Amino acid sequence: MKKRRRIKKKNNVVLFPNLERRLVEKALYSLKNKQYTEAIRFFEEAKAIDPLNEELLFGLVVAYFEAGYFIEAKEAAKELLNSGIGDYFQIVDIYIMILVQLHEHDEIVKTIQSLLEEKEIPDEKVAHFTSLLQFSKKVIEESTEIEKSPQNVEKHQNKDVFSVDGDPKKQMLLIAELANQNIRPYIREITDFLQNHHAHPFLKTMLLNELKEQEYHKEMVVNKFGLTKTVNPVKVHDVRSQPMLKKMILTIREQIENEDPILFENMKTILERHFFLLYPFELEQYQLNVWIAAYHSICLEYIGFEDAQINIAARYEVSEKELLEACAFIQELEEISYPII
């Protein structure tokens, strides 16, 4: 006679067999489909059951990072490093990228110097970490120099801050550091970068956002996705407050949230990510209901509804041709990897 599997209990809560595994699978699926808020929820639920699961702990760090929760990502990465679980240098790598986003270069220097002194870095990674160390030291030195001698800013006028062999990760590091500096000495390089059709749209948004933060009021030409626009950084809407984005989120909140709150969150997350890539442009060519229908259709496909477009077209009273074309453009945006990935 077969023995029945015992149902576990934790803090008087019944835990069904393989619940943790199912949660991790759902989290990984959400992460793969860039549904980061949903992935975090599943990872955190799984962690409460098994706090030492390597796969879910690393996945949680990645999900936090991709969702922009850098403080939470830092704490989760530190916890993982201290536990000794997983690929140590893979975790160190993402930990340093998190520190860059938080502008914690002193901690980057401390971390890498410790690894170098203890000779723990594999030979094939020494050059990579040495480069990051030199970069952070340089940022600290330049920040100190500018703080002590504001008149020295002019010395940086001719510095090409983007001469990093076109590596988006390195460019992201450099652009992130402009938050700690006067951006005006780099306007010539920024102008060229914003007009470069091959430059990463994510990085262009980072630059525009920093120009706005530092109240740069001269007009800039931006090329993205085959479109050209002249903008005054001070006068453009905040990247998270674009009118069309707010209107679309309000519409799907009214139409979808009560019906399917998870679908609503997934649509909202993808919309925010895409509008970040598009900024300062918005979704054009089709009417609002076509775009909402297209995002609804794409999100349904992500969860396994392969033939959703016909029903969605009828629901939103849009043509199948326009819906398919809008979906194709959304898929193009989905294929654009962020520099950290």
Automatic annotation (TrEMBL):
Entries under InterPro entries matching the protein: TPR-like_helical_dom_sf (IPR011990)
A Pfam family recorded for this sequence: TPR_19
Domain of life: Bacteria
Name used for this protein in its record: Tetratricopeptide repeat protein
Organism: Bacillus aquiflavi
Lineage summary: Bacteria, Bacillati, Bacillota, Bacilli, Bacillales
